[in-house]
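Final report, closing paragraph on structural work. Over the funding period we assembled a curated collection of sequence-structure pairs, and we close with a single example.
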Amino acid sequence: MSFTFYNYRRKDATQPLTTDNIEPIRRFSGCDAEHSYIVGHVAAAQRTGSMVSAAQEILRSVRSDNRPAFDKAMRQYTKAMAQVNDILSQTLKNTSEYASFRTFLNGCNKNQPMFSNGVLYESSTSCPLGSGQQPRHYLGVAQSSNPIASLGTHLFQLSNLSPRGTLPCASSNNGVDSLRPENYQSFLAHISAESRALGVQTFALGSPASSVEYMAALDQVLAYRYRQWANLRDSIPLQSSGKSAAFRDYFDVQTRHVRDVAELVHRTHANTDTELLTPESRARAESMVHRAEMVRRSLNRIITDPETAPLAMSMIAY
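Its predicted structure, as stored:
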């Protein structure tokens, strides 16, 4: 958090937080990838306020059985998530160095081979080298589950929908969510408990129109998860002889995570009476399930043969 959200300033204080009006204050390496990461995530984080208010309204509308309010709140969430996806996609496109910043992308923990024993930082003032300093272990960008995606996982009961139970962050007491600030963990725990108690998924599937809004939200979560997965795959070539078994196991789990989200979109569509939809909504639903099916088939091939080339982001129009 201190690397990004407490580490930027506006170039022009009178202008909004757009990517061309944000600059980092401090840099770890100074490379273009680091700059793009900080700027992109600060710009994307502006949308989280809308996502949080949408999540709260979704829960309120289910509690009061107010379907029009539910559909409106779902559209608000999906719009904000789409804006986040667009900003972060542009961040990747705007730098050629993103996948080469290894400690930044891969982190320094047991799940990747280059820094599996952590990293000793010479500039550490709290415990200088030679005086008992312990290696530090951090999650990398490609291995962490962004809080934005975690909110969707809890709000939309994705772990409950998955027959394999492999979706990330199913509980704020394990996984990467346990490494977040306490207030963040408390908020996710609240969202998760309320969503389960109210039955957000069941409510969404109770109307064809609401089902399409639910699919649209899952569609954006899938876009986010697929991009995250692609970053992970690119961070260390699969054919690398130095790639550890731990990393391969971790990558396999993440592959199944994304495939499960794609299957959720497909199942939601299958459980929706599309004949009751307007032609526009029907076309929208068919477009989303088509993208999800392409992702599902591609990842199933990779699970069978890890050397298979992944589906290009451009092919699924994310």
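Confidence is low (pLDDT under 50) at residues 161-174. The beta strands are 8-10, 22-24. We thank the funder for supporting this effort.
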